[in-house]
Specification:
CATH architecture of the largest domain: 3-Layer(aba) Sandwich
Radius of gyration: 18 Å
Helix content: 40-55%
Number of helices: 8
Structural class: alpha/beta
CATH superfamily of the largest domain: Response regulator
């Protein structure tokens, strides 16, 4: 069964180009030309992934992404923009986008990114890398990989798919220092133009959700000049 891609962009030429190339690669493609229609189709068409332009009429891509995540819908989102602006990039990722591309781009590159995102999503669903553990306990955190759930003090945490994947990745390497570059290559599955800010944004948001005091983290420690490592607070008591 073909995987369904929703392309939301107000530029007819871009939609036509992506639609043709995605269909040639075996994807089913649905389209929308404004944010309101795109948001509606996310919920009515249940796409496997959304290619979402930032600058859209009626409702911009940032607002669409925000609305989708507020409804706990975790469909993967690849955001597009004509502006090479770090603020836009960080904002999109903070709101739960899975990836970000700047125009102009080649259809081949977009398809490669889409396939990488879908592979990661499928990997999370199978949770094979968690060594078939049904429950992970670390400090006051309880993680249920098969259910994609994480609890702190038995309170369910609202983690995005990327945050959940990053948490599992760090737990599997507990106690080891992981560089930002290594995380970019492993968790994002490709070189992200050396932009380690993407890692920092996700780490910051993960800390906000799992730490009692994000400013004094007990789980995810910063190793100055190197990267991050995850520790079990109970082992440090």
């Amino acid at each position: 069964m073909s995987q369904k891609v929703l392309v939301v962009d107000d530029e007819q030429s871009i939609v036509t180009l992506l639609q043709y190339n995605l269909q040639q690669s075996g994807f089913e493609v649905i389209t929308a030309y404004d944010g309101e229609d795109g948001l509606n189709k996310i919920f009515t068409e249940s796409p496997d992934i959304v290619v979402l332009d930032v600058m859209l009429p009626k409702l911009d891509g940032v607002e669409v992404c925000k609305a989708v995540r507020s409804e706990k819908n975790q469909v993967p989102i690849l955001m597009l923009t004509a502006k090479d602006d770090e603020f836009d990039k960080v904002l999109g990722l903070e709101l739960g986008a899975d990836d970000y591309m700047t125009k102009p781009f080649s259809p081949r590159e977009v398809i490669a990114r889409i396939k990488a995102i879908l592979r990661r999503a499928q990997a999370i669903q199978h949770v094979e890398e968690v060594e078939e553990k049904k429950e992970i306990q670390i400090g006051k955190l309880r993680i249920l990989p098969e259910h994609f759930e994480a609890y702190r003090n038995e309170e369910l945490l609202d983690l995005t798919p990327k945050e959940f994947e990053l948490l599992i990745y760090l737990i599997e390497r507990q106690g080891r220092v992981i560089t930002r570059e290594h995380m970019l290559n492993s968790v994002w599955n490709y070189e992200f133009a050396g932009d380690s800010r993407i890692v920092d944004v996700h780490i910051s948001h993960l800390r906000e959700k799992i730490e009692e005091n994000p400013k004094q983290p007990q789980y995810i420690k910063t190793v100055r000049g190197l990267g991050y490592k995850l520790e079990n607070p109970k082992r440090n008591d």
